[in-house]
Amino acid sequence: MATLCFFRFWLGFGIGGDYPLSATIMSEYANKKTRGAFIAAVFAMQGFGILTGGIVAIIISAAFKGRFDSPAYQDDPAGSTVPEADYIWRTILMLGALPAALTYYWRMKMPETARYTALVAKNAKQAASDMSKVLQVDIAEEQEKVEQLTMKEANSFGLFSREFARRHGVHLLGTTTTWFLLDIAFYSQNLFQKDIFTAIGWIPKAATMNAIEEVFRIARAQTLIALCGTVPGYWFTVALIDTVGRFTIQLMGFFFMTVFMLGLAIPYHHWTTKGNHIGFIIMYGLTFFFANFGPNSTTFIVPAEIFPARLRSTCHGISAAAGKAGAIVGAFGFLYAAQSKDPAKRDKGYPAGIGVRNALFVLAASNLLGMIFTFLVPESKGKSLEEISGENEDEDPIDSAAAYNRTVPV
């Protein structure tokens, strides 16, 4: 247990810390016309990771299922979990370390963004050199312009200053609350898909399967949802975000997540009737589609655009941390809330909850609140980072050593 807790700590501290870094790096290297698509494409890789993880789980569990046959839990509780089943999750977890190891080398080779190097570290020469290497174009050092830009009040205030509160306090409230509310619904859906699939009869009850069969069926169901709903949603965002805009996509996503969750909850007893689970699965998949063609993508993108350079990754990290707090609320809250009032249908050891149907109503309410708080977040489509953050406020635009607003081939 101690080892697992230690692993989870470093997973959040290290890999979770890459959220603000990857978003900020891409936002500061991209041009304003296609910046949204590039940041969204970075985030969309998560969809392929989800899909790959599901496929790996299917392959490994299928291999073990064919090799180690065992009775169902209701027939033989002890025999339903063969000793070899313990290697399934260990193998999947170890394989997950490979992409992280491969990424480590490239992360070590990445330079700081030119905006940080020029405006915060005040090294125009290094900023110009880094940009020249990344973009493969010659960029001249302009130390005087960097010094002019760094002397501005827009780059001097701190996170806890009144100036930050005046300029960006509402924006930070918007990015944190929307990410928090999104993750309550998004992570509860992801973590407890198996309970929902069982409730509607898409996969058999756990007691009717052995441990390996259960892993195989859950992985297959989750992969199908990822393939048909999750991954397409990410790439619709990539394709349309610089045309439709961040605000519209986020508002639309929250709206349709609310609509489809109500569509699942209101006629819930109809969906759980035998033979009606296909309609439920389609609507459930659409909630994932509009989460990713919606706030799950935009809450990652917008904080990397609307804050000043010296505080951009910090504010993104705060917003992401608020999202993870929402994920905790969603994970533990749904775990308890979704428990049936009927002891026979309730997981062993858990108190009575409000049931899956009422839990879906709560998630719909969370999405509705997310839609309301979206109005606190500004639209950043087609604007330079300096224009959005107000760093060029009351002054003529200044091209720094990194040529920030220049449209370059990427």
Describe the protein in words.
This protein has 410 residues and is mostly helical. The protein has one domain: Growth Hormone, Chain: A (Up-down Bundle), CATH 1.20.1250. It is 68% helix and 0% strand. It contains 17 helices and no strands. The longest helix has 34 residues. The N terminus and C terminus are likely disordered.
Give, in order, the helices and strands. HHHHHHHHHHHHHHHHH
Give the low-confidence spans. 1-13, 394-410
Number of helices: 17
Sheet/helix structural class = mainly alpha
Mass-distribution shape: globular
Total separate domains:
1
Ends distance:
46 Å
Strand tally is: 0
Radius of gyration: 24 Å
Query: Can you summarize the main beta sheet?
Result: none
Helix content class: 55-70%
CATH topology: Growth Hormone, Chain: A
CATH architecture: Up-down Bundle
Please give the CATH class: Mainly Alpha
- Mean pLDDT score: 79
So, the CATH homologous superfamily?
A: MFS general substrate transporter like domains
| Amount of beta strand | under 5%
Q: Could you outline the blueprint of secondary structure elements for this entry?
A:
Blueprint: H1 2-15, H2 18-29, H3 35-67, H4 86-109, H5 114-120, H6 124-135, H7 143-150, H8 162-191, H9 193-199, H10 211-244, H11 246-265, H12 268-271, H13 277-292, H14 295-301, H15 312-337, H16 355-373, H17 385-389
Helix pairs in contact: 2-3, 2-15, 3-4, 3-10, 3-14, 5-6, 8-14, 8-15, 8-16, 10-11, 10-13, 11-13, 11-14, 11-16
